[in-house]
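User: Some background: our group keeps a shared notebook of sequences we're curious about, and every so often someone picks one and asks for a predicted structure to add to the entry. Today it's my turn. The entry only has the sequence so far, pasted here. Could you supply the structure so I can complete it?
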Amino acid sequence: MYPNDFYTFKVRLKDKPFKTFKGNEYLQTATISFFNEYGQEIAYIELAYISIDEIYQKIYNREPLCLDNVYVENFSIVDYKQKYHLSDDDTIEIFDFSAQSAVFYAHSATIFNGVVFKGKPATFEQALFIKGTTSFDNVMFEEGNVNFNSVIFFNGNVSFYNTNFLKGTINFKNTTWGIGNKNFQYAFCGNGDVLFSNSTFKDGHISFVNCSFGNGEVSFKICKFGNGNKDFRFAIFGDVSLNFERTELNDGLIDFSKTEFGKAKINFNKAILGKAELNFDELQMSGGKWLFKQIYMEEGSLHFDQAELKNTNLYFNRSVFK
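Assistant: Of course. Here's the predicted structure to add to the notebook entry:
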């Protein structure tokens, strides 16, 4: 819905009623014009607008929070707690959260830290985080089945540190992550699929250090990564299918050292590794197979020092190592 290759943008607020596709009515409209590097408008959209104070009031009243097709400015749980004189340790609950096709703008950061999403599974499908960093640190998605499908994080400094996704499918398919560091350290993913398929990660480091994955599929199939490290050290995987098939991993360290796998299928078939260093030192795996068929590695390296691969087969058919 939104362009992911714009250079700049301009927001205007109008005293004009707006009705969303689901029939929700608002008193004001936000218009956003997107421009390329030559100052030419490449896209124009209209959204509903409500003030951040109205959004905070809905949270305080424990009302369902629907922000579908809404322009949201400077959302911050830190700010919310200050306005309602709550302590840093107070848990904030948000009910039946939906922000499909919403746009989040922040001077500094959009912050959901410590929120517990309750009721219906939370969805940010096709949302755009247009300015500022984004943080979901210590968040709990109580109903699982979280939907970030086709979300654009224009600023790639995004954190899901210690986030509890609990259960069900975690859907990050078709997402775009701008330049910056992406942090999933200590995140917990219960049994179910974790899907990043067809996503684009621009330059920056990505951390899944100490992340916990249950049984299911963990897919980075057909993803495109910019330069930077992809760090999975100390991560724990259940009986999973880990898929990097046809993924462009480019340069940087890809580190799976000291990770633990149950019975797994790990697939790097047709991956493009560039000058990457793949480190599987001290990895433990109780059974399964590794597929490195038709991969292309240019000036990179592959390490399995002290790895324990029990009852595991490795396949390197038709691969090229330069």
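Suggested note for the entry: Residues 54-321 form one domain. The longest strand covers residues 41-49.
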